[in-house]
Specification:
- Its cofactor is Mg(2+).
- InterPro entries: Nus1/NgBR (IPR038887), UPP_synth-like (IPR001441), UPP_synth-like_sf (IPR036424).
- Belongs to the UPP synthase family.
- Pathway: Lipid metabolism; Protein modification; protein glycosylation.
- This protein is α/β, with parallel strands linked by helices.
- Helix content is 41%, strand content 15%.
- It has a five-stranded parallel β-sheet. It has a two-stranded antiparallel sheet with strand order 3-4.
- The chain is globular and about 60 Å long.
Length: 219
Amino acid sequence: RGPARGGAARGRQRWRADGRALRKLPVHVGLVVTEEEPSYADMASLVVWCMAVGISYVSVYDHNGIFKRNNSRLMDEILKQQQELLGLDCSKYTVEFANHDKTGQVLNCQSTLKVLSPEDGKADIVKAAQNFCQLVAQQQRTHSDLDVNMLDNLLSSTKGFPDPDLVLKFGPVDSTLGFLPWHIRLTEIISLPSHLNISYEDFFSALHHYAACEQRWGK
């Protein structure tokens, strides 16, 4: 048990140092899988690495909603890897789900995770528009009140979450397939061939690439 715990401590120090070494670190990273067969173990590794380098918000998405439907399986895998990679002395915190119907005490490092599906993207925009129309009908708002901030406030899927700074998209599809279409208009998107068997070096290389990029403004 001692050597394993020592290895976890060295890993924590390395990952935290890696995060500090970057010129800029994203606040919110979206992990978007476009492949048909998502891997719980590989996604769990990515989530734990995000937290280990100091990323505050992480969202996980696949276009079939598999991770969200099986969120307890994903959480179990994340907790297992957290214990293996980061040791058992990390403070616990509440994991949030976009639909607010399930929470669990797992993970570490004061990060927050949301597991999203397509219903949290386009459908959320439709619902926000309907809510705004209802406010207009009730004469609580006028049509001229609708602006970027108003729409942001009406969206519920990412309540309390900043917009993603970075999306890591995995798979051959040249699209984020409905991942928070409103929120990623200014987001840097980095494509990786696959999340299957992804290494920490591949993950950190993507963060390094992000740190070297200038902020995109709708480009």
